[in-house]
Design brief:
The relative contact order is 0.15. The protein is built from seven helices and two strands. A two-stranded antiparallel ribbon has the order 1-2. It is mainly alpha-helical. A hairpin with a 2-residue loop joins strand 1 and strand 2.
């Protein structure tokens, strides 16, 4: 069931459903596998196992790029995937940054703080919106771009001994700018959704890449 809000935006009001079958969707398996790679990535970074880091880190980045595409391609989009994908992204990036800091790879602590605070705010915001409006907010384009660029920056910091010094920092800066833009876009979306409090029926999912109507 759909309720039309404006000429260019429709909100789906179907019931949120998560069942066992969704855990076997290819896209969701990739998200779970990405989380499972975290201990191996951390170990390889701390132990300076560069080849292992390159292989496992590359797999994590590729899985992040593929899960959304495969979900659409195979018609396996699910509410579970909308939850697992951003959780996997945030866990991988946050834990890898922590490993870089602990292994003295010259990763800026202030950048670590920005990423962690931003991710915590997004998680809290999503929880509030879900609790009040029963909406599962998916990652939008800004969020996916942020994850990709930050992941690339982290890989560059892993190999900073072999890469000219300014390059990792420049890529990290781009990633942080995208992180702030994505946080702003999520905030704008949450505000819009919360203003629907007087709508006649609960809203469950919404296209994350459409701008709120004025």
């Amino acid at each position: 069931m759909h309720r039309l809000l404006s000429s260019n935006e429709t909100i789906d009001t179907t019931t949120v459903q998560i069942n066992v079958r969704h855990f076997f969707y290819v896209s969701n398996v990739l998200s779970v596998a990405r989380i499972g790679l975290i201990p191996f990535i951390v170990y390889s970074i701390i132990r300076h196992q560069y080849l292992m880091t390159l292989v496992i880190g590359g797999l994590a980045i590729i899985s992040d790029l593929l899960d959304g595409y495969l979900a659409r391609r195979l018609n396996q989009q699910s509410d579970l995937g909308k939850i697992l994908d951003p959780i996997a992204d945030k866990l991988v990036i946050g834990v890898v940054i922590l490993a870089l800091v602990l292994s003295d790879r010259k990763f800026p602590l202030w950048a670590f703080a920005i990423v962690i605070v931003r991710d915590c705010l997004i998680v809290v915001g999503n929880m509030i919106v879900f609790r009040r409006r029963r909406i599962i907010t998916r990652s939008n384009r800004w969020g996916k771009c942020t994850s990709f660029v930050l992941s690339t920056a982290l890989m560059l910091y892993v190999f900073n001994e072999y890469i000219p010094n300014p390059i990792p920092f420049y890529v990290l800066t781009i990633g942080l700018v995208l992180a702030l833009i994505s946080a702003w876009s999520y905030g704008k979306r949450w505000l819009y959704l919360m203003q629907l409090s007087n709508s006649p029926q609960p809203v469950e999912t919404i296209n994350p890449n459409k701008s709120p109507s004025a």
